[in-house]
What does this fold into?
Amino acid sequence: AIMLNPSNEKTYIERGHTKLYDRDDFKGAIEDFTKAIEINPKFELAYEYRGSTKNKLKDHKGAISDYNKVLEINPNSSDAYCDRGSSKMQLEEIFGAIKDYSKAIKINPKFETAYINRGLAKHEWNYLYDAIDDFNKAIEINPYSFDSYFSMAQCKEYWKDFEGAIEDYSKAIEINPYSFDSYFERGECNVDLRKY
It folds into this structure.
């Protein structure tokens, strides 16, 4: 398709997407996304995908730069705020990450991933009650949110609410019975409660 129409930016996006997700050819994906941007400098999706690819290569500052460009083009992109927050978390810019996740939630109040990620960031700062609030919001959106139950259990375990943690680990196991970590952590809580 590129041979037939080398000026079609969407063709480069499709090929880059295949390289990124089907072939793990990150360098090739970045080249295709960059080519799409050269053809159309306002192509939001090309920056978004290139940012995701840079994150996979651990070029978090480069990813942030691409997400900034997405937000210049579309200031209401909840995905770009959430993804930029994740890049900031990798750089240990926790406050900046929380701000980005909050902006994503303000734009899209049903954005489960943004609530989970903000909860994880708050957990990093030991704002455990606030983190649990975010995990509960994610569960309201998706009652089968494994990540929310597991992360909430970790918060409860941290402040020694072992019974609450066991309950949440058990719910996580119901959702994903193959989660070794959930069984292990639930067992640790039972040991702490002397229930063995």
